[in-house]
Amino acid sequence: MQKSVCSALLTLLMLSSAQALSLQGSVIGSGASLPPSARVGLWSAGPSGAPINELVSAPIIGGTFTLSLPTDAPPSRAQFPLRPESIGWPGVVGDVSLSAPVLSSAVNLFVYDDANRNGKRDDNEALMDAFPDVQRQPLVIFWVSGKVTVSAGHGFAATLSSGWNTFIVDLGRNASMSAYTGQPVNLRVRP
Hints:
By secondary structure, the chain is mostly beta strands. The chain has one domain (2-190). The chain is built from one helix and 14 strands. The strands form two sheets. Strands 1, 2, 3, 4, 5, 7, 8, 9, 12, 13 and 14 form an eleven-stranded mixed β-sheet that branches. A three-stranded antiparallel β-sheet has the order 6-10-11. The longest helix has 16 residues, at 2-17.
């Protein structure tokens, strides 16, 4: 009974966090020495993780950023059927099952030097991988076309609502998830 109450509460928190949301935080580690024209961008990604197109971006000013997540669905060319074998979220191990067939769009964060300061990435501006976390726990941003529950080994279960979903994967003895509700984000950039 207590587990189902916790699951219901977590689902409600996720539904509220799937609405217009901003990531606010700091660039840490080796990426902290970025040029003054650096931007962070949220990119739709193909099944292999390769970037398809930039959905939104924001400047990194003094090592900090505020990135508003989109409210619209990603472009149709960035939507793919969600398959158990395509879920590579941290902490998801073992057999993965889905409660319903849905389209999905994985996204990744990248940082780049907007050298000409036009507010968007140009072909000659290299992308650097950026890994978001909240208190050293991975932050996942994911879009789905309908409600679906993703289950995996060690008791992992994530109920995703239609649209954008953000959650934190708590890596411990058993991977679990908690809602992202605007906590400060650390962005680790790999040059």
